[in-house]
Amino acid sequence: MMREATTGLEKQIEIAAKLLSLSAKIGLLIGGTCIVSYLLSNGHYPQGVSVGDSLLFLVTAFCFGLVCIYFSAAVTATGILLSPIFIPVLRGFVWLHGQFSDKKTILEFKRPKITFFSVFFGICGTLTIYFLTHKSPWEHIQLILLPIFQYIVYSAYLEQNNKIKAAQPSAPAIVDSEHPEQNPPAEMKPLKRTRAMIAGVMLLTPLLMGGVTSDLLQAAMSFAQIRIERATILVKPPYANLLPAPKDSPLENYKRFENATVIFRGVGNSTLIEMHSEETAIRLEIPNDSIIVERRVKPIAKIRKNPEKTES
Description:
Oligomer: single chain
Low-confidence stretches: 307-312
């Protein structure tokens, strides 16, 4: 009994380790691809990258990859959580399709099992979609409808998973070395490949079709302090002569500029900034030794001016 419990625990730990490893690889791949796309879209190519900069890039890519995975999981969970509302509508479309076509519908829209994780991530996904779309809902209509599509893809994933379970033998089959094509695992390879493709669609669709990838990327960059909005910067000449509205600075040989956007910093030997004037916007790469980014922090606790005296 104890041995069976230990074996089950070891299997759970092994599965958890594999899931963490897979999540890390997917996070690095997605995050690295998005950050490189961000750099290319801004025309910035970091130079003089050190080992520490490479580590920072990997950490940032991994963090953004986790944000993307969370977003995809949250949108999918929102579709699962709200599925009792729009399942009758989907079944109505299936019924209408059956009236005009003799083809049998591939998917049966069944009510999925609602778990704690689907409720938790569904609520998080609903709040995320609301905060991303409440200012301009018509411009983000694809994101509002995305949970329905994610539920459909999730239903296809469950259907494929049921096919794989049905194809698995109840007892371990003896592998025939002379006829390897009769081996059940080999027969299930196409089913597992299709399931992996469906999972990939479920993961990437919110990023590609949600219309908020740039918003998520900018938010992740701002959270990592790689992108800073409305920053105050101190710049040395001759770069200071190219920027609008310079002000005097307490530091010698520096000019002060307010409401600048630091687009990319921390990786390489230069910082990409952008400033807007009444007529145009100026984007400039400045060496790190010629720019200082002011960082204002709020005090942790307010010190009372007239503290009350206490008697011991």
